[in-house]
Amino acid sequence: MKDPYEIILHPYVTERALFMMDRENKLQFIVKKTASKEEIKKAIEEIFQVEVESVNTMITKHGKKAIVKLKPEYSAEEVGMRIGVF
User: Fold this and answer.
1) For residue 53, with 0-12 CB atoms within 10 Å meaning exposed, 13-18 middle and 19 or more buried, which class applies?
2) What is the pLDDT of residues 9-43, one digit of tens each?
3) End-to-end distance of the chain based on CA atoms, in angstroms?
4) Are the CB atoms for 29 and 8 separated by under 8 Å?
5) pTM of the model
6) How far apart are CA 38 and CA 49, in angstroms?
């Protein structure tokens, strides 16, 4: 497997991202343009020791953005605090 830190470049933090973290248990990241959803899922699970329910991706002016929904037993806010989003 590729190095997960090569796939996940950095968290993407906006007001909307914080709202999604709070209400929908989702995190947003800027990821490598060539990364597949499966690679993103594995990288997030490995880096943060969580389980991912789904991954949605889109290309933005900032690069490829991944919206990662965690399984209900994991807290996106707790992961956000660990990576210093707050």
Assistant:
1) middle
2) 999 999 999 999 999 999 999 999 999 999 999 99
3) 31
4) yes
5) 0.93
6) 16
